[in-house]
Amino acid sequence: MDIWISINALTNVINLGLLSALVITYIKIYNSSKARFTLGLVFFSGLLMVNSIISVYSYFTMAQLFSAALLPYLLAISLAEMAGFSILLKVTLD
């Protein structure tokens, strides 16, 4: 397996961890406040988790279909998502 695919898959697994932490945090906030807005955040984060799961699955099952020239750009997208999720988690926890 190409190193780029492995790095992309690992980045998306880390994104799944960050999103899981966000979902758990939003559920705790909802349980204490019953604010409907947090249900939207849970739903939104859950959909992003589905996106990351599909990404990881596709890296392992369709690796031969990815162009080598495309992989660095996919990594840049995943890293940008990771930065965004990290910032969102930090802001949420503060």
Question: Which regions have little confidence, pLDDT < 50, spanning 5+ residues?
Answer: none
Compute the CA-based radius of gyration: 15 Å
Q: Could you spell the SSE succession in H and E letters? A: HHH
**Share of helix among residues?**
over 70%
Count of β-strands? 0
Tell me the domain tally: 1
Shape: elongated
Q: What distance separates the N and C termini? A: 40 Å
**Number of helices in the DSSP assignment:** 3
Sheet bearing the most strands, described? none
Strand portion: under 5%
The structure class reads: mainly alpha
Give the integer mean of the pLDDT values. 90
Question: Which properties best describe this structure?
Answer:
94 residues, 3 helices, 85% helix, mainly alpha
Question: Can you walk through the features of this model?
Answer:
It is a single chain. The protein is an all-alpha fold and 94 residues long. It has one domain. It has three helices and no strands. It has helices at residues 3-33, 36-61, 71-93. Helix 1 packs antiparallel against helix 2. The longest helix has 31 residues, at 3-33. The chain is elongated and about 45 Å long. The N and C termini lie far apart (40 Å). The mean pLDDT is 90.
